[in-house]
Amino acid sequence: MNHLLHHDLQNIVALAEETLTLTKEHFSRQSSLPPGRFVEDLILESLPEKGLGAQGVLSYFKENYSTKLSHSAGPRYFGFVTGGSTPAAMVGDQLVSLYDQNAFGSNDSIAPQVERQTIHFLKQLFSLDEDYFGTFVTGATMSNFVSLAIGRQWVGEQLGIDISNEGTFNMPVKVVSAAPHSSILKSMSMLGIGKKNIIKINALPDREAIDVKKLETCLQSATTPIIVVANAGTVNTVDFDDLQAIGALKKNYNFWLHVDAAFGGFAALSPGYSHLMEGINEADSITIDAHKWLNVPYDGAMQFTKRKDLQLKVFQNSAAYLGDPNSSPDYFHYTPENSRRWRALPSWFTLMAYGKEGHREIVERNCSLAKKIGDWIYTSEAYTLLAPVRMNVVCFTLQEEGISMERVKVLLDRIRDDGRVYFTPTVYKGVPAIRAALSNWQTEEKDIVMAIEVLKEMREQKK
């Protein structure tokens, strides 16, 4: 065995302890860590002929790289809808690497069975019918990809074509939505559906929610079965399509209903917001992301469908050594991957550790704190609230004539470099804007007080 490898093996406990020390240092300093930062391009170095050893490279990383990371998993990162990692989820994630299971098999390891248990828990958490089949994938983009692939297969079979075997043959697949997430268009591109085959339906006035009457008009004129993508929580304003009304249309029209509930699905946890998810069980497929509001590390989302049979047709992996896909529960027959990280384990840990009550509290606290920001902006003379604060996202802009994205970015760069809070830019109904998204388990009222102070101070600097 290589000398360095042998040395590292002998000192594995010391390495673990040093990593633990780095973890302790990180959390002890988190109140002073910048949630966002600008880093110059890394100068690429030559690969060393002789390695540094694990301990050597850990020290090198700590000195040269750890200080240049953003604290996006912290309580004042209000950029993308990014949770953090609850303590239990971090433990689970470390064990994923320790045991390094390929979570595709059915009986050679308990890993895939833990995944099934976790999916079962999540269906209970989101009040999903038990007849949904669920799998873990890498993120919401891949969940949307899998769901649209199943929807595409369904469209083909309505026309007598098995796309999984025969291909599309230039068969048009139309996707209808009011405010689709960019990952829907990306998935359409990857699936060969084509981005041009999106049909945009107007939203309700001053909303991002689809006008159901206009959707029905579109369905009436459709000459082939189509895929409808409904939103359960848009990225700018957390607006929800009327899932009940859209589901009711299925009685008279033949379409595949996919609900993108990447983070809005967590509305189901709270009595104050659960009405927004009524009708979810009319969906043929559903996207929900774990590394957002469930607060587990990146590389974890769920995909649910009632058409497991179609999912098998699309993703089955036929090989002699893998057995009969029609009688196998193995996940590599249902997702794009053959090799699958045991990404369900952090979710299992956090669900078991904090239960429904703990995760409900995170959702409700984030929503309450987002409203505090919105209430302040509503009365501010420096900023303008662009939409009601429906859950955990605040969409606002500068209160000035001829607002431009350049002006917004100048302010946001100033806020980022200040190092106390972090926001990201967006565009809402053509208006350059700022988006504050709260989804971290650590965010408290003191963080909101600081955020408001920063918004005041950085705005005053322009004068």
In a nutshell, what does this entry contain?
With 463 residues, the protein is α/β, with parallel strands linked by helices. Helices cover 41% and strands 12% of the residues.
What report would you give on this structure?
With 463 residues, the chain is α/β, with parallel strands linked by helices. The protein folds into two domains: 170 residues, Aspartate Aminotransferase, domain 1, CATH 3.90.1150; 241 residues, Type I PLP-dependent aspartate aminotransferase-like (Major domain) (Aspartate Aminotransferase, domain 2, 3-Layer(aba) Sandwich). It contains 14 helices and eleven strands. Strand 2, helix 8 and strand 3 form a beta-alpha-beta unit. The N and C termini lie far apart (66 Å).
Keywords for this entry:
463 residues; alpha/beta; Aspartate Aminotransferase, domain 1; 2 domains; 7-stranded mixed sheet; 11 strands
Q: Which secondary structure elements does this structure contain, and how are they paired or packed?
A:
Blueprint: H1 3-10, H2 12-28, H3 53-64, H4 87-99, H5 111-125, E1 133-137, H6 140-158, H7 163-166, E2 175-177, H8 182-190, E3 198-200, H9 212-221, E4 226-231, H10 243-249, E5 255-260, E6 285-289, E7 301-305, H11 308-315, H12 344-379, E8 383-385, E9 393-398, H13 405-418, E10 424-428, E11 431-437, H14 445-460
Parallel strand pairs: 2-3, 2-4, 4-5, 5-6
Antiparallel strand pairs: 1-7, 6-7, 8-9, 9-11, 10-11
Helix pairs in contact: 2-3, 4-12, 5-12, 6-8, 6-11, 12-14, 13-14
